[in-house]
Queue: 2 jobs
Job 1
Amino acid sequence: GVPLPERNVDYQELVTTVGYAFADRMSAFVDVPVRFLNPDINQNATGIADIGFGGKYAVIYNPNRIVSLFLRFQGPAGSTTRGLGNGNWWIEPGVLYLEQLNPCWQLFGEFRFLAPLGTRTNYTGNLIRYGLGTSYVVAQGQWGYIAPVAELVGWTVLSGQESDPATGMTVGAAGDTIVNAKLGVRIGLGSPTGPLPYRSRSD
């Protein structure tokens, strides 16, 4: 990690994702993040963070429901000493779910398990990620659609250690949980091209 013990770290991350669908049920993707790190004690840093890649396969695929198997790998592309990466390879299998409740309303969720492929330090451990969200189309036409989105996304640490900033001691991190509430909007561009939930080719 960064050279000096840190009390607090702020960061922003812009992620460019490129995906390609080989068929209706199968796709692959690459995630390239750029991280802007703002620590309290260490120097600010900007650069490429750890890169992810993987694929999805829909085991259930119909106009009302999609259930996909998800597999993602993360590689150590970001600098560990500048706080841009963690220096470890990771594997992340999971399940993704989408339900079309009516022509305008979607419910979706995810469950993922993140595990290191080899352990660099005692701070490396397993965690689970889970989420539930919904969106509702409030406007649509030949130009596309607009759908506000609300999500709850959580992470729970299963193993590994962390530094206690108050004491400087190393303690177990198992059980640590973070849950984020997120609001956003999804915008589709272009006329509808197929059955729900795919309203346009660009969004």
Job 2
Amino acid sequence: MRIEEVWAGRGAGHALLRILFAPLSGLYWLGWQAYLAVYRLKLKRAKEPHCPVICIGNLTVGGSGKTPVTIHVAKLLRELGQEVVISASGYGSKAAEGANLARTAVTNQPAPSLPAQEWGDEPAMIRWLLPDVPLIVGRDRVRAAEICHQHFPDAILLLDDGLQHLPLKKHLQICLDDPSATNRMVLPAGPYREPRTSLGRMDRVIDDLRFQPTGFLLNGTEPAEQPTSANALCAIARPERFFDTLSGQGIEIAAAKSLPDHDPLTAGTLFEGLPPGLPLIVTAKDWVKLRDRCDIGSRQILVAMQEARIEPEDEFKAWLRSKLDEISKA
């Protein structure tokens, strides 16, 4: 049984497990409060190797759209004339240790793609979608800020996740929240990495995030027509959202296959159970892993592209501008 099933399940067994985990959640809550108090009481001070630092995060484990929102905010900042560098953790990859500047573009050449197995699926997706934005990969966010300041001193450092990384000072914290969540317990009885009371320490809470489908790319390159029927495959935190979106677009899903979030998609049995003769629809996050396989040449793979939207966009953009002005004057 996956832990996500325990958190969201409505059966008696799920409820019993949540009750059994509750004492551990109490200990976790106390540990988080102690960790937070160390910085609030200034027993430790967050380091500030670079300014400004903007963090896009959430309070829960699993996908809430942080990476798509990071990409969206990066685009808005560039529209405001700002230089942007993105910091991503590289979860599940060798690059997650420490922090390293990913290979960047050279004169008159596009930035090289990043192998997902080496750099992580989210950094690989960010590089694919924003090839000209410098990218620092690794969980050491203080080191990432030092690298940013060394190579891009005038840039905004935009963190994809990291709200719970208190050793680094963030100048703007944007939290993605799901107000409809029914299980609001902290780990392990619930999905929260820190209690919902922490929403009060955020600069902005986004609780109405929207994703707008923008079409399909055949094998990640050429625009393609929407199919009437297809197979679907994903390895994301909330696969039901992906499948429901496709169905909502009028696509008949012949077979849907989901794997755990961040699965490398390297298994030789990956395509088993998917009826032949139909296109396979995947997410952008999964495409950057599939493209490295040697057995996809004859397959018709459609990447379902979508954009995160923070509405009203003009108001959010004006808020960003005003906050950056405040930071620069501080």
